[in-house]
Amino acid sequence: MLDSYQSALTGSYTSGSTSGSTAHYENLIEGIVNNFDHYDRFLYYESGSNSWPKVSGSTAPHLNQSSNTTESVSFFNRMITSASNYDVSNFDLLINSIPTFIREDSNNEPYLMFIHMLGQHFDNLWIYFKAVSDKYDADNRLDFGISKDLVKDAIESLGIKLYSTNFNSEIFNSYILLFGMHKVED
């Protein structure tokens, strides 16, 4: 869907449904991007072997390749295979709580899709609640404790005012070391 909206913006979309203004398609694209979950954001914004293929030579923000390129089709097929293999071996999959005779009946496909959607919803809730409990986990390692993107908000939530500065991080770190080594006398 996103590809067809972007194609309509560039004028390369060859369907009878291209009526409308540029602002209309930009609003549709913005609506889709704003509703991404954490994994969708990773695929869309990040660059790497596990994210959506990017236009070569693009710098951040990276430009995504169209879904009909060879690299995109290959990436999509690789991810579908990986996800399917994971689902087969995942015993905690919500759909496994449904009796087998219901899962095997092809007339129940809409119901099974709904159960998968519920599982996705609860995965997002779990991620949120895990992040809430990690908020006050004081750990200075980059991949543990509070997300580095939330540090400023967490510090301000404790009543500490932070001010922006023109100092670079090297100067700031040297000030922290300097003040941290001296004991303040009353």
Give the tally of β-strands: 0
Radius of gyration, in angstroms, nearest whole number = 23 Å
Mean pLDDT: 77
Instruction: Pick out the low-confidence regions.
Output: 181-186
Topology as H/E string? HHHHHHHH
Main sheet: strands, sense, barrel: none
Q: What is the helix fraction of residues, given as a range? A: 40-55%
The percentage of residues in β strands lies in under 5%
Number of helix segments?
A: 8
Write a brief caption for the model.
This protein has helices at 2-10, 22-34, 38-45, 70-89, 100-103, 109-134, 151-157, 169-181. By secondary structure, the chain is mostly helical.
Q: What would you note in describing this structure?
A:
The chain is mostly helical. It has a domain at 91-186. Helix content is 54%, strand content 0%. The protein is built from eight helices and no strands. It has helices spanning 2-10, 22-34, 38-45, 70-89, 100-103, 109-134, 151-157, 169-181. The longest helix has 26 residues, at 109-134. The radius of gyration is 23 Å and the shape is extended. The model is unreliable at 181-186 (pLDDT under 50).
Label this structure with key terms.
disordered C terminus, 0% strand, single chain, 8 helices, mainly alpha, 186 residues
Spell out the blueprint of helices and strands:
Elements: H1 2-10, H2 22-34, H3 38-45, H4 70-89, H5 100-103, H6 109-134, H7 151-157, H8 169-181
Helix pairs in contact: 1-2
